[in-house]
Amino acid sequence: MGQRDSGPAFPANETRAFATVIGMALVLGVDSSTQSVKVEIRDVDTGRLVAAGRAAHPATTPPRSEQPPSAWWGAFVEAANLALAEVDRRDVVAISVAGQQHGMVALDADGAPVHPAKLWNDTESAPQADALVARLGAKGWADAVGSVPVAAFTITKLAWLRSAHPDAFARMASIHLPHDELNRRLTGERFTDRGDASGSGYWSPRTGEWRTDLLALVDDGRDWTSALPRVLGPFEVAGTLTVEAATALGLGRDVLVGPGTGDNMGAALGLGLAAGDVVISLGTSGTVYAVSDAPTSDESGAVAGFADASGRFLPLVCTLNAMKVTDAIARVLGVDHAEFEALVLQTAPGADGVVCVPYFDGERTPNRPDATGVISGIRSDVSRGQLARASVEGVVCGLLDGLDALRSAGVRDGGRLLLIGGGARSAAFRRVVADLSQRPVTIPSAEEHVAVGAALQAAIAWSVAGGGDGEALLMRLRRDWGLGGGEVVTPDPACDAASVRAAYAAARG
């Protein structure tokens, strides 16, 4: 899943240079998300941002959300070269890719897609998700892979492909996740990591093994083992660049490639999360997650029991609708972002009884793929401020429900509460998250946390290749790179958060 797209920190297809560097060891951190690819170049020792580039991916509109994998590679090469133009390419020692989770990349024996990649926010496989859950039961799935499949999960998309396009399914020889596909183009090898694998619906975080018996529920006549990539540990080196990749990037063949991971796992690395810290990410979609020392299993389906990219676990709740909800309301109100922010901040908590249930494009948590949004409590004197405030509160209430679900699954949450994504740049969202959670909220100073995490992983891969200890390096680089620090927003104790959340719960049903 992609988190969300955090939104452009600078315009699409643009580059930024931050310093002239001579003789540094540099790493590329890549965030290949739903809407775009961001590449950051950082100094290995300090984590200092040296240059960055960005390029767009093709737009999608759920319920069908598909992209050609070749577009990811083209955008990556464009963004990387924009950034690399600002440095001495001979200083680049490693690359790592974090990508949108869950997507289905089905390839034939020659490595060509048998169908466009189906993304995490494609909900066409909702009927197949329901059928798979019925076969094993919610508890059976939670026990097997830590999560109850919904339409986002790769396994449901494979079932959809078999049903909707049996000829393409028959030609499928291998299955990749989005970040795996970029790594295949970089190295010529087939591999994934435990973090991204844990969002497929057929890999167990508890045992660290592929569950081909679950794939047999999709098709019991196929040799699934041969279709699956190897799973790398968090501190392994995946390989070096192919001739094609080195030529496209203007880099040496000896540049190392880290294992990569899913976007949420990359963000957790980039934020330097410790057990007990909780992240709320506000982008296209919303997520709430925390690092845990133990795997989770939630048969309600609210909490996905993922693995992380450090050898631990990343229980996560994802909502399908976040910033796109407030963007839609701003468009309907005919206001720009600044005017929308002012309307929210000028309106009292609770929006005078107006409540927005933000299931605009269906919802993943709770699992209501066919739902639509609801705005209740409207009277003839409704104001633009009420609608604006209600839309922000609806998004935040849905994510705080996710935080409640993490607690119910046994996840510790007594550490920091961090807000990231496009919503973290919004004064309105900062205020509403702090007030409705009644907790101090840290807004990390870095913006592209997924790319930072990927760069950190690349730095570790380079150091491990030189004989370093991965776990020790992770702890040291978290400190030396100053990860996760930033502004703190304190809650208004006068805000009646309980009443706002109760009104939302009543409207949600």
The biggest beta sheet reads: 8 strands, mixed
Outline? globular
Q: Structural class of the helices, strands and pairings?
A: alpha/beta
Distance between the termini: 26 Å
Overall pLDDT score: 93
- Which percent range fits the helix content? 25-40%
CA gyration radius, whole angstroms: 22 Å
User: Can you count the helices?
Assistant: 17
Structure summary, number of beta strands: 25
Strand content: 15-25%
Uncertain regions: pLDDT < 50 for 5+ in a row? Answer: 1-22
Secondary-structure map:
Blueprint (H helix, E strand, L loop, with lengths): L14 E3 L8 E7 L3 E8 L5 E8 L9 E2 L1 H16 L7 E8 L5 E3 L9 E2 L7 H11 L1 H8 L8 H11 L1 H6 L2 E3 L1 H10 L3 E3 H4 L5 E2 L4 E2 L1 H4 L14 E3 L6 E2 L2 H7 L6 E2 L3 E2 H8 L7 E5 L3 E5 L13 E4 L5 E7 L3 H11 L3 H9 L9 E3 L16 E3 L7 H25 L8 E5 L5 H11 L3 E4 L4 H17 L4 H11 L5 E4 L7 H12 L1
Parallel strand pairs: 2-6, 6-15, 6-16, 10-13, 17-23, 23-24
Antiparallel strand pairs: 1-4, 2-3, 3-4, 5-8, 7-9, 11-12, 14-15, 17-18, 18-20, 19-20, 21-22, 24-25
Helix pairs in contact: 2-4, 10-15, 11-13, 12-13, 13-14, 13-17, 15-16
Give a written overview of the molecule:
This protein is α/β, with parallel strands linked by helices and 509 residues long. Helices cover 36% and strands 20% of the residues. It contains 17 helices and 25 strands. The strands form seven sheets. Strands 1, 2, 3, 4, 6, 14, 15 and 16 form an eight-stranded mixed sheet that branches. The protein has a seven-stranded mixed sheet with strand order 19-20-18-17-23-24-25, sandwiched between helices. Strand 2 (26-32) and strand 3 (36-43) form a beta hairpin. Mean pLDDT is 93; it is low at 1-22.
